[in-house]
User: Fold this.
Amino acid sequence: MNPIERILKDFPVIILDGALSTELERHGCNIDDPLWSAKILMENPGLIGKVHTDYFEAGADCAITSSYQASIDGFVKQGLSEAQATDLIQNSVRIAVRARDAFWDTWKDKSARPRPLVAASVGPYGAYLADGSEYRGDYRLTERELIEFHRPRVKALVEAGADLLACETIPSLLEAKAIVALLQEFPQVCAWMSFSAKDGERISSGERMDECAEWLDKQRQIAALGVNCTPPKYIPSLIHEIGKKTQKPILVYPNSGEQYAAGTRTWHGAASEESLGCSAKAWYGQGARLIGGCCRTTPDDIRSIFSWARNTG
Assistant:
């Protein structure tokens, strides 16, 4: 039984955490850098642990590590050796595991919630490019080239001992297929696959969400699938499209609804008027079973999910 199945056997929903990068910014970090939040692995790893702890205390059942924009190539460009880059990537898991274990040791009512998971973030190739192409998927790389890019980080994260991989903000089915093919080199590992989407029916590349779900439904190592870093207004339709083609657990962790400008690495526009907690309850009713937040969401948003999710029978 994979860790997602194990928790959902006893609890109706798994509460994911919220934004890491924008939460680090709220704590004063400057992440205006091609490495984005992975830069803080070099500068202030203790603060990453604090943010993980804040989310656990707010009710999160899963911490997503700070490795989204971390890659061997990205760190080498910053002047590090491959060995140093690998150690930083693995440290993203160690930080989350330490925060999880320390939190769980002090949590009194262990029957009221599951022991939290650590999901190692595997961001798309576009995150390494740092040009917003994780919302387009137009890399012009082959499946084999994508496998070669992802392999060293996936290997490092698996060896670091994460509970599962969080393959997230994936913009195209081609990149999802490359990651699934790579997972076969690590047969005991499971992962979730989460796409970025451009509307209520299509992922960022323009491919149909239901077609992606149909293909992923047949993949043994995919433990859950869904969408993230997508405006909340598209989530109900996307849950419907996914649910038509899979029996796997559906996960959703949208952004705040604001728009990201890749050129300036800034957010613009208005956030969703409805609270994440209120929306999340509706998404649960529509079929989502792993629910959290992505960019611009906070521990307060996760707390609002926890307030109803642990009273759901």
